[in-house]
Amino acid sequence: MGRALFVVDMQNICVGKNHAKFFKYDRNMLITAVNERIAVYENENVFYICKVMKNNFLNKLAPVKAFYGSFEAEIAEDVNVVSDNIIIKYKGDAFSNPELMKILAEKKIDEIEFTGLDGGGCVALTALGALKNSLKVIINESAVGTMFVKKAEKYKSILIDKGAEII
């Protein structure tokens, strides 16, 4: 079986050069750390997970927008893109997209290393989704940005209890 790298929500809206001011990550440090992990993997085993919003009336009122197909929703230009494995999600957990497990099964992936955003949100939620699908989970904290520190600590404890490895 194989190992994959998930690059979660490293999009223009969050870490792009003109990212939304709401997102307060150390952009350069995080992108460098994620790119270092991307360089370790074979191209076909790198997955880019992108959270997008449905283009509806309610979302048009949101202060921060990343609609499917928009510049904000694209992977930030400084992130190395080495594969066409782009998984779109509308919820925090990428496993809410039923195609993800099909793709991982085809590629015989049973272990995932997580990088990206946010340790107190989508990284943790997708890691929990991976565990529910009987996949081995590794959270690489050096390549995970976190704004929601209290939530990240809560999720870290839950993830460890469920068998995730934190490195």
List keywords for this structure.
single chain; globular; 6-stranded parallel β-sheet; alpha/beta; 167 residues
Outline the biggest β-sheet. 6 strands, parallel
State the low-pLDDT regions, or none.
Answer: none
Molecular shape: globular
* Secondary structural class: alpha/beta
What average pLDDT do the residues reach?
93
So how many helices? 6
Strand percent estimate? 15-25%
Q: Compute the separation of the termini in Å.
A: 21 Å
The value of Rg in angstroms is 15 Å
In helices, the fraction of residues equals 25-40%
Q: Order of strands across the biggest sheet?
A: 3-2-1-4-5-6
Say how many strands there are: 6
SSE succession: EHHEHEHEHEHE
Task: Note down, in words, how this protein is organized.
The protein is an alpha/beta fold. Helix content is 32%, strand content 23%. The protein has six helices and six strands. A six-stranded parallel β-sheet has the order 3-2-1-4-5-6. β2, α3 (57-60) and β3 (86-89) form a beta-alpha-beta unit. The chain starts with a strand and ends with a strand. The relative contact order is 0.20.
How do the helices and strands line up, and which of them pair or pack?
Blueprint: E1 2-8, H1 12-15, H2 27-40, E2 46-51, H3 57-60, E3 86-89, H4 99-106, E4 109-117, H5 122-132, E5 136-145, H6 149-161, E6 165-166
Parallel strand pairs: 1-2, 1-4, 2-3, 4-5, 5-6
Helix pairs in contact: 5-6
